[in-house]
């Protein structure tokens, strides 16, 4: 199967310990069909598209086209548990700069460093939402801009810019 081919999978709930880690789990046989190895980046296409790192699935998923993702990733692709989505292996460059905005008014001192640590090693795309817990309070932020455009992985050298104004998706009324 060529790397540009999508395959259809069914979304299942992520393991509790995987929640918030920015990973998806896929059975070893399905990973082989897509020429994937642990740590590769996949694009998930539901009502929207998102990217995540892929890890091997659980033994009980062998022979099943099952993708285990957390609630945040399901929200980003616009799909729920037992919905069908399409996935494919994709390439991701390294992000030079990522602009992040809250989804509600908030001022966060030191937020760039904190969010940079959380996102380090993860693929991001414009419009993606991330949920973080700050002092026990869950907050949602949006990836407003990625340089270069497309899917990019946050690194130690990625410049993180945190804006105070709430994010509004382009085309939203």
UniProtKB/TrEMBL annotation:
CDC48 domain sequence ranges: 107-169
**Coiled-coil spans in chain:** none
The UniProt entry, under SUPFAM superfamilies, shows: ADC-like (SSF50692), Cdc48 domain 2-like (SSF54585)
- The CDC48 N-terminal subdomain domain sits at 8-92
Q: Which UniProt keywords apply?
A: ATP-binding, Cell cycle, Cell division, Nucleotide-binding
Q: Does the keyword Flavoprotein apply?
A: no
GO terms for biological process, alphabetical: cell division
Q: What is the lineage of its organism?
A: Archaea, Methanobacteriati, Methanobacteriota, Stenosarchaea group, Methanomicrobia
One Pfam family in the UniProt entry: CDC48_N
Name this protein carries in UniProt: Cell division cycle protein 48 homolog AF_1297
Q: Which SMART domains match?
A: CDC48_2 (SM01072), CDC48_N (SM01073)
Molecular function GO labels? ATP binding
What InterPro entries does this protein map onto? Asp_de-COase-like_dom_sf (IPR009010), Cdc48_dom2 (IPR004201), CDC48_domain_2-like_sf (IPR029067), CDC4_N-term_subdom (IPR003338)
User: Whose protein is this, by species?
Assistant: Methanoculleus bourgensis
């Amino acid at each position: 199967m060529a790397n540009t081919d999508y395959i259809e999978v069914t979304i299942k709930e992520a393991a509790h310990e995987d929640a918030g880690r920015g990973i998806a789990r896929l059975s070893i046989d399905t990973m082989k069909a897509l020429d994937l190895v642990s740590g590769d980046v996949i694009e998930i296409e539901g009502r929207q598209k998102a990217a995540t790192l892929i890890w091997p699935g659980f033994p009980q998923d062998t022979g099943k086209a099952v993708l285990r993702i957390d609630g945040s990733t399901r929200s980003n692709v616009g799909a729920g548990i037992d919905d069908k989505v399409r996935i494919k292996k994709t390439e991701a460059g390294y992000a030079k700069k990522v602009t992040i905005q809250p989804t509600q008014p908030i001022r966060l001192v030191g937020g760039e460093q904190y969010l940079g640590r959380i996102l380090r090693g993860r693929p991001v795309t414009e419009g993606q939402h991330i949920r973080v817990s700050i002092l026990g309070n869950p907050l949602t932020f949006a990836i407003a801009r990625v340089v270069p455009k497309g899917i990019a992985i946050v690194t130690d050298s990625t410049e993180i810019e945190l804006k105070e104004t709430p994010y509004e998706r382009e085309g939203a009324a």
